Amino acid sequence: MSGAFPWRLPIIAAPMAGGPSTLALVEAVGRAGGLGFVPGGYLPPAAFDELLDHADALGVPYGANLFHPTRQTGDPGAIAAYARQLQPLADEFGATLGDPIWSDDDYAQKVEVVARHRPAAVSITFGNPTAADVDAIRSGSGALVAVTVTSAEEATAAAAVGADLLVVQGAEAGGHRGIHDDDPAHPFGAPLTPVAVLLAEITAVTSVPLIAAGGIMDGAAIASAIRLGAAAAQLGTAFLCTDEAGTSAPHRAALLDRRYPGTVVTRAFSGRPARGLANEFAADHADAPPGYPEIHYLTKPLRGAAMAAGSAAVPSLWAGTNWRAVTTGPAAELVARLAAELDREL
Ligand SMILES: Cc1cc2nc3c(=O)[nH]c(=O)nc-3n(C[C@H](O)[C@H](O)[C@H](O)COP(=O)(O)O)c2cc1C
Questions:
Q1: CATH class in words for 11-69+104-246+325-345
Q2: What's the CA-to-centroid distance between 77 and ligand 1, angstroms?
Q3: Which of the residues 9, 178, 182, 316 has the least number of beta carbons within 10 Å of its own beta carbon?
């Protein structure tokens, strides 16, 4: 079905850093014929290395994902003012706000880590790798190298460094926007373009195979992405409530009981535009300043304490626009359903 890939189905479970993407999810999706991703974001390189040792031993194709370093744009004064604003909430949950540090997420070391392993694909988000990094990953691991793009300009730049695949992330997508150069003056970092429009714009400028992402929850949506020129689809939100996902209990509950009316793109949690359920924290801090990953590290202990207390009001509840179609059950059943629906469409 997906002749272009070393895995059977054009169905990818998105890398979801911070808990949801477990090895069990990667294994279940891989055994069902799709591709699951091990996210490297936020992990110390040694922990990522160990996870990929386990992934290599699974005996199924898998992907690995890296966060590209971001330009340091945060204004320390504005971040300090945001910290003062958050202090009463931190006190309420008995949390100590974190140090708003900038970090490159140990990107260079993680490039070396993936190059020592055997992923079928390595995807990079938040920026465009150098041609040397693409070569190092491909020659070390044998993986196809994918770059997440949110515009035709980013697609052209990623094709120019030799990307084998482009993950075309539409406005609908849950989680962080993959924009290469987040404009701090823009509320969303850059214009939000729906995935169907992006696919049309990007197929016009490159012949690199495309993976569509954003708001895809069923086989019919995968089929329409394929009709618009995609070779496969990457689904995040659809997998959040599967049995194998490591999604937190408050996040699952908020998705399943439809507590919040919709999603919003906000910098409130991490300083970088990301789409999640419009919970109380997102509503109360719509004017949060830019500054990624400083604000991620500032709010992390608060989000963690609220989560531990069972609250959905404060943690980031990443979700794409079509989150209402989320289902529960084994990931293999979801992949089988998506494949059957896709077969009926194509
Ligand atoms: C909870 C969550 C965490 C995510 N974490 C990552 C990540 O670590 N790396 C990445 O490249 N994309 C990440 N994404 C974005 C996905 O790759 C993808 O673009 C998105 O899930 C597609 O939209 P959908 O959620 O509507 O399917 C995340 C998405 C969600 C929902």
A1: alpha beta
A2: 30
A3: 9
